[in-house]
Amino acid sequence: MKNILTLSLVTLSLTACVNRDNQYDYIETPQPNQVADLQDDDTDGVINARDLCVATPDESEINNEGCGIIITSSNERHLHILFSNDSADIQPIFSSQIRQMVEFLELYPETSIEIQGYASKVGNEEYNLALSKRRAEAVDRRIESMGIAADRVTVVGYGETHLEYDGDDEMSHARNRKVTASVVGYQGDIKKEWTIFSRLPK
């Protein structure tokens, strides 16, 4: 008896939506009020309304704001050039060091470099100060001749005030006749999203 009563109620509710000609009454589709841009122009899975990075690189792993996750890497480059006694001439053996430094500066255009010149404690202190600066300027000219802008290079001469080797032997003097420089560059790489085509390093 209970089952028959339930079936009757279901039948009654269904027929209530049907008119006498067995046709459903037309209900007009409500007009949506869209308040946000639901499109995803850069197809990164984040709608335009909350996408803060509108040109996400393809295959990049993104955060909730639609921006690619960036991994920061750093590299460092050094110069260490030795000079003959009372000389500011760059010996050919050090040309590759300078070329590598130039390539580094080109790779990291936001970096600058300070070139530091030194001298041994042989001779007059004032003369050695000027000599150390001439050595640094010689390296500076070589770097700028290879396309690095002058405003990215600073030159300083220390003379014999910052000796690395304090001995009076010829080996110590030779090691103190030098130009050094170091620079650190930072670069960001987009972290790519893993796909079925990704390959792990062997």
TrEMBL record:
<dbReference type="InterPro" id="IPR006664">
    <property type="entry name" value="OMP_bac"/>
</dbReference>
<dbReference type="GO" id="GO:0009279">
    <property type="term" value="C:cell outer membrane"/>
</dbReference>
<dbReference type="InterPro" id="IPR028974">
    <property type="entry name" value="TSP_type-3_rpt"/>
</dbReference>
<keyword id="KW-0998">Cell outer membrane</keyword>
<dbReference type="InterPro" id="IPR006665">
    <property type="entry name" value="OmpA-like"/>
</dbReference>
<dbReference type="InterPro" id="IPR036737">
    <property type="entry name" value="OmpA-like_sf"/>
</dbReference>
<feature type="domain" description="OmpA-like">
    <location>
        <begin position="70"/>
        <end position="187"/>
    </location>
</feature>
<dbReference type="GO" id="GO:0005509">
    <property type="term" value="F:calcium ion binding"/>
</dbReference>
<dbReference type="Pfam" id="PF00691">
    <property type="entry name" value="OmpA"/>
</dbReference>
<protein>
    <submittedName>
        <fullName>Membrane protein</fullName>
    </submittedName>
</protein>
<keyword id="KW-0472">Membrane</keyword>
<dbReference type="InterPro" id="IPR050330">
    <property type="entry name" value="Bact_OuterMem_StrucFunc"/>
</dbReference>
